[in-house]
Amino acid sequence: MTEQLRATPQQLAQLIRNRTRLEAAIVSLRLCVSVARRFGLGVDLQSAARPEAAGASGEVPATPPDALRSALRFARDHAEEMGVNWSNLPDWQAERLRLREPGDLHPVSRLAAVSGEPAWSALIVDLVLLAGLPELHEGYAALFRQLHPQGEPYPTVAMALHWTEDEARAGGAPATLYAARDAIEDLLVHSRLAHVGLLRLEGEGPWHCRTMRPGPGVWSALMARAPQGDGGDLLAGVRSVPGLAAWLAEPEVLRAAQALARGEPCMVALTGGNAAMRATRARALLGAAGATAIHAAIQPTDTPAARERAATDAYCCAFMHRAIPWLDLHSDGEPGTGWPRAPARRLQWDLPVLATAQTERALPDLRLPLLTLAVHGLPATARRALWSSLLPQMASHAGALAASYPIEPDEALDVAADLALRQQVEGRALELSDIGTCLRARTAWHARPGVTRVQPRADWNKLLLPQAGGEQLREAVRRVHQQMTVLDDWGFEQGRLERRGLRMLFYGPPGTGKTLAAEAMARALGVDMLVADIASLVSKWIGETEKNLAAVFELAERARALLVFDEADALFGQRTESNDAHDRYANLETAFLLQRLERYEGVAILTTNLRSSLDSAFTRRFEFIVEFPEPDLAARLGLWRLHLPSSAPLAPGVDLDQLAQWYAITGAQIKNATLAAAFLAAASGNAISQQHFLQAIEREYDKAGKAHPGFPPQRAETTPYPH
């Protein structure tokens, strides 16, 4: 033990491997003795096979083929390379037991202690090493192929039985034959060794005909290596995670870390948030506990049996690697259906377990004391500190970045690396827009029916609003940027989460620029815009509308986007008296929306044609209500000029003042008319003329189902296009 404590990690790993090879060599040589005797060979493997020699059970074994003789000679030679031969085998057998002193760090000692019965310890180690010999060298795999009835490269239970029986006879104790057989059956079928899965039986038929294989992570632990994909991934904790220092200092988190560090049998569960948030906090918690974990991802499509197997594999691997099983659950299955009860009763979990899940109902019932830690996004103050530490050159904008981008530590580190590379390649100072670009590239977009992602291109110059409306939009952007100062530094949040987000109502006739204004706001904030189609979200099935809406909000939170509910009248309309079940559930949908809007930390915009059609409960919760009236004469003239590029060829006689004065149409109709006029002119091979504009405007009236007011007086004699 002293030698182990003084060794470096690399030296300790080599010590563990050497000792495993030594113990395996002793086991292999003992196996060779048994096989040689059973097949009538001399223990030196030099004499020819003697068919007349009787086996242990009285039968006359067949002459072994040359391949078996060669495989046995390999096993003998391999053992002798480790210093173990026929003559000193008893001495080595005694030495290997002496090596298992109290406090021994070798994984063999973990095996020896698994049963709790000292008399079985040596037998357990022998069986596991026997099953693991093919993992040590391909020569042992060749030996077992010669002995296995189906030619598999692993030993059968029968081989272990014959071995123990032969050694019992050699020791002059025939009365113990059945005792040894019973002991092996108890160990392989009924003991904790089997329940934990440290040694597994595979195949069909009676138990003694099955194949023995080491459980997940067993042999990798014996060879001081990370598990190779069996049982889970060996993950170390992260001692310093930017942005999580305050979370790790919370009393409940400190208690959980201490429980994991002491190895107390308990389950520490991280619930809520998304998978990335839970994983980041789990690694930080492991780092605070100074522990490693075996990470097992359990998918929603896994059957209860598959979940039990994954949990057992993770436990087996963690037990051997002195780690903590981390059950990463991606499902909300009920405990009684998603998880069988068997593992909780049978495994007798004596290790601390780390579990991560969306909800508590997805957690397995392991009959362990439970410590639950709710996972939430980083608070705004932590996000500001995170941005300041990672991007010191942007420290003056850290508050605005924290409000616009509710980012997680891992994402922030990736973005900081992306920005450093961009700065190095492009050789220029970073701009705020670069952060949004890098975040957009890093954000996984999961398309969902009814939701459109828009990368904003419109800016304030594209908007022609009354001065009051335009100023409200700019004030809303400033409010987002100043949230940190007012809510956190000045203490105005006061525990009310609804003050964190921003809710706005845009109302006005169709085509007056409501969606365009939302796009301009998104660009000013440096985020994408998600436009939700209300018609595809509303369902006739009870509860489905709420699920659809929840998914939209979650998508917007992951994308860090400005969320727009376009034409929201149907969904956000007036609540009614509960005259029937349909009315009651419609009112429940409205109540759900109210709660979800208040919890949304981003910018949510509702657009409607009629302000009066919305429920008053919604209008009370809007920080800004912006009117988008139909454009007046000056606004219409500005829109005509805005939508005509300077490169567009205009024929003499085009009079935009006349079009603005004569036709009271919306901004969207003006945009459509300018584009249609351009295509008409291109088709005729001429510049865009007044006639092309008049023809395009008439079509806009037809599309809207409105009466055309006619043509300007000076052109009344001209027919814009054939009717």
UniProtKB/TrEMBL annotation:
The organism of origin for this protein: Pseudoduganella namucuonensis
> InterPro entries of this UniProt entry?
26S_Proteasome_ATPase, AAA+_ATPase, ATPase_AAA_core, P-loop_NTPase
Protein name as catalogued: ATPase family associated with various cellular activities (AAA)
Protein keywords: ATP-binding, Nucleotide-binding
Pfam families listed in its UniProt record: AAA
Q: Which family does it belong to?
A: Belongs to the AAA ATPase family.
Q: Does the keyword Nucleotidyltransferase apply?
A: no
Q: Which residues form a coiled coil?
A: none
Question: Which terms does the record give in the GO molecular function aspect?
Answer: ATP binding; ATP hydrolysis activity
Instruction: Give every AAA+ ATPase domain span.
Output: 500-632
Chain segments carrying region Disordered:
704-723
List, alphabetically, the SMART domains matched.
AAA
